[in-house]
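Wait, mind explaining this?

_____
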Amino acid sequence: MQAPAKSDRLYYLDAVRAFALLLGIVFHASLSFTPMFIGWAVMDISTSPLISIFMMISHSFRMELFFLIAGFFSHMTFHKRGFRGFAKSRLTRIAIPFIIGWFILYPLIVSGWVMGAASLRGDVNILEGLKVGFQSLNTLPSGILVGSHLWFLYYILIISAATLALRGLVALSPKLHTRLVFLADRSSQWLVQFRFRLLLLSAPIACGIWFMSHWGMDTPDKSLIPHLPTFFIYGGFFVFGWFLHRQAHLLEALSALSWTRCFNCLGSIAAIIGLAKFEGDYTHEHYALFKSGFAFAYAYTMLSLVFLSIGLFKKYCDRPNRLLRYIADSSYWLYLVHLPAVVWLQVAFAELPFHWSVKLIAISSLTVGLSLLVYDLLVRPTLIGKTLNGARKKSRLLRLALPDDKRSASPPAFSDKPTA
């Protein structure tokens, strides 16, 4: 009897991608607890400077981590399905959720801001907030597809298109294509072996950070015209992930864990925390020097946390696990729908006399819990689940509700195979 073929599924990368998305939910849930007003929908009565530090650190790497993994899996899809299969995947799993999701979620997000403003006057009206939120669609086409957290889908689309266009141009000359692929592979190998690779990679990223509108990564959600600094940074991580899939062993080398890397990361985090206080001190004689130092330390922190995160998940999650697989499958849906729920809950919790940590845990948990319930019952086994995950899958909750004898005998949900 032949042994079953070993699965080539990279379980830990599924977990890494889920982590990046779930961290985004906690990030948004924390925004109402900053000690200074940042233009968010609502400001809680309980705040902490620790939230500002958490925001700066988590925002420095979570989307870069996501785009690196997206590039890795994009090359995997392109390699398996070819150009047409890849384009179809981008259309069904990214473009459709982006467009349909925006029209559903944007009015709900606007309503959250309306209710947040009303809460400052102690006069929250949910129906009025919803009314104003959906009336915001009357201004279309002005502002269409912008002003939401779904900007990352748009950037994946345009970065994927740019990558394919560049690849297509290079492929017009087979000789040039072969030479450039060889050069890219050798450069990747050299980079992994170079002792000071993170310092080298930090330099171009720091240049992009310098041109942001504030110290740190901008959120390019205001326009469909690409914001060039963020486009090149996220695009760089995507393309790097694309090339790493050609030599997957290099990713393991880049993400190898060591105490030295951990201490270097902590040092760069301490640097950005210490330098961030000079952001508004434009008249300081060393302002440009401080900004340059912050940009470089921020870039180093970004790279360190990206690869340390991958290394940690490689060490602890590189094996089949039903719970992790379920979370990985649901994480895309959770991130797509979370923001209206987060903002509404922030408004509801804003005046309650509880510690900010209790509220943050409650808002994050309720958002994930309610979204998971909807996912399991209404998304996972339906066409929506097929669109987001590539296949319909059985509801776990409904399966648990079945008697033991029927649970084991029940046919797969939405199976195309005939049953007896």
About this structure: The longest helix spans residues 62-119.
